[in-house]
Amino acid sequence: MTSFIQFILVAMFTIVTLVAFAWVLRGLLGVAFSWPRLIIAAAITFSLVNPIINALPGTYSESSALDDTQVFPGLWIVLLGMVIAILIGMVFLVIAEALIPSGTVPGPMYIARAFRRWVRRTRRYVEITWILFRHGISLGAVSSNRSEMRSAEGRAFLAGKVRDALSESGVTFIKLGQILSTRRDLLPPEFVTAFSTLQTEARPLPWTEVEQTILGQLGGKRIDEVFADIDEVPLASASIAQVHTAHLLTGEEVVLKVRRPGIQGQVDQDLDILDRMAAQLERSTTWAREMGVRSLIAGFATALREEIDLTVETRNMSVIAAGARPGDTLIPHVYAEFCTNGLLVMERMHGVPLSRVDSNTIRGDRQQLAQTIFDSLLHQMMVLGTFHADPHPGNIMLLDDGRLTLLDFGSIGRIDKITRQALIRMLIAWGFGDPVSATDALLTMVDVPDDLNQRRIERDMGAFMTTHVVPGATVGSQAVGDLFGMIARNGLSMPPQLAAALRAIGTIEGTLTWLSPGYNIVAEARHFAERYMHDLLRPASIRDLLTEELVGLLPIIQRLPRRLDRLAAAMEEGRWTMNVGSVGTPEDHRMVHSLMQELLLTVLAAASGLMATALISQDTGPMLVANMGVYQFMGYFLLVLAFILAMRVLIFVFRRQ
């Protein structure tokens, strides 16, 4: 029983001592640490106290006789030993912070979840790797150094293998191939041609799964409480969603777009794998680094996540429909009260997608149909700033009454006002045959490198305009590809929003020329820009613009007299001063304050260290114990102070990084 009580007392003493050492270590360094790290440092300190005390000069053994002249110096030596042990604990914390910064070691729950994700990702890695292996493809397969890439036949053969591998890998990779098929600035034409044949049709889901998905999206309501009937046979089935026709209780005929169950997790997992593959490509190949493959994948991931969230598509349709003009392509009405992230309910439009229409059966003016499609897209781009980013023939429907409607608003582009204005200026400059103004407008839209050769870009722009913009020139998808190529050749970085706009124009070009052979998209875009600028110069538009600017200036005008009065009074009374701030933001103030604090601590640490060295080297003065004088004892404590200050500087530096 006595041994057990002794064990409890020793354990309590040890715990209290460890907590005390942890508290002292944290206070001396002045920053917060996790308790596991502090306890480890405190344990190191606790275990070193006794060995250090025994190793110090002047330490007396238990067997030595104590007198009044030895007790007091002995206590100071014990204290010095504890301080040295604490310094070693501080060194451990600083080194641990340098090697493993706080917050970088995950907790056990995170590790468990990460392990499950790793298992799923590894399984998917093996699946994709096997697909690539069966098609004879590696991560460096499309390197420009490979022999296949040096001839058109070899590139076409390799592009076909990559296309087949993407098609077999699932929806994420199919969508990636479809996006790449529009990037003529990035891929050889053989790859663009091969990837353009990728389709996203998928095996239809059984009605029981679709029914359960719809029930899960209705917020606890029964299907018959919202819909009068639903056709169990799908109207269409793609890899992201399945489409069914239905009737509301109020009689309206609608279309239900139901997201496939489990698609969210699959897409997130595949996007994570694509990001890791892109990082590996950038590390191992030069072309991937120059192309910025990882940033391209990041933009693709953002677009795909928006596409599988049907609430985003609901919002996109409402925004574009609100800004549509009479005569534009129709936008189906959305029943937003029934829409969720997995269910979209919209008006049923009766017609046939242009991809399934026989050109000989089209009624009406084909030139007018093409003009309506292109004008609607340009209006969305240049006026609304939100546009349909994937206007391929399957997403444009020819209705039974001869009108046109747009479908599938999951892929949307957005252009800010500055880029829209610059795009309009470039189109107008093309109309006037002015390559200098067109170049200035282009440089406003793209990211410009430091070593820009503007004269070269102006010459390239002039050559582009001579080829594609002159009267009588036949404009095709090659014009968009040449513009992409000119931008890449001059080291310019195209923002994703501009790339999406040009990509949409390149996508729709084939549809327009199919509807109306010889349709000149560059000329029509220029005419649209000229009409837009003409509308802005009308008296009503100028009045609206001035009103908008005046509304923005009113608060400034209202405050101006009071500010002028205060300024005049201050000057009259001699109180006028001017403050010039060396730093502009609170973050700058905090940074300067932190640097000044670290500089001061460094100076104090250096001064204390020099003084400690001088005192420790002194052989004269009164003796504290047999082997240590008072000056040496003071030097040791100054050395401790210098060490503590140096550790604080180091921990501040590592923690800030």
Keywords:
657 residues, alpha+beta
Can you give a write-up of this model?
The chain is of the alpha+beta class. Among the domains are: 2-99, no CATH class; 124-308, no CATH class; 587-656. The chain is built from 22 helices and 12 strands. The strands form 4 sheets. Strands 1, 2, 3, 4 and 5 form a 5-stranded antiparallel beta sheet that branches. A 3-stranded antiparallel beta sheet has the order 6-8-9, covered by helices on one side. Strand 3 and strand 4 (253-259) form a beta hairpin. Helix 9 runs antiparallel to helix 11 and helix 17 runs antiparallel to helix 18. It is extended, with a radius of gyration of 37 Å. The two termini are 53 Å apart.
Helix content: 55-70%
Q: What Rg is obtained from the alpha carbons, in whole angstroms?
A: 37 Å
Number of strands: 12
Low-confidence stretches: 60-72
Instruction: Tell me the quaternary state.
Output: single chain
In short:
The chain is α+β, with helices and mostly antiparallel strands. It has 22 helices and twelve strands.
Helices, strands, pairings?
Layout: H1 2-29, H2 35-55, H3 68-99, H4 108-134, H5 152-169, H6 171-180, H7 189-195, H8 207-217, E1 227-230, E2 236-237, E3 241-248, E4 253-259, H9 263-284, H10 286-291, H11 293-308, H12 310-322, E5 343-347, E6 351-353, H13 366-384, E7 386-388, E8 396-399, E9 404-406, E10 412-414, H14 417-432, H15 435-445, H16 454-468, H17 477-489, H18 496-515, H19 521-536, H20 539-572, H21 586-616, E11 623-625, E12 628-629, H22 630-656
Antiparallel strand pairs: 1-3, 2-3, 3-4, 4-5, 6-8, 7-10, 8-9, 11-12
Helix pairs in contact: 1-2, 1-3, 2-3, 3-22, 4-5, 4-9, 5-6, 5-7, 9-11, 13-18, 13-19, 14-15, 14-19, 15-16, 16-17, 17-18, 21-22
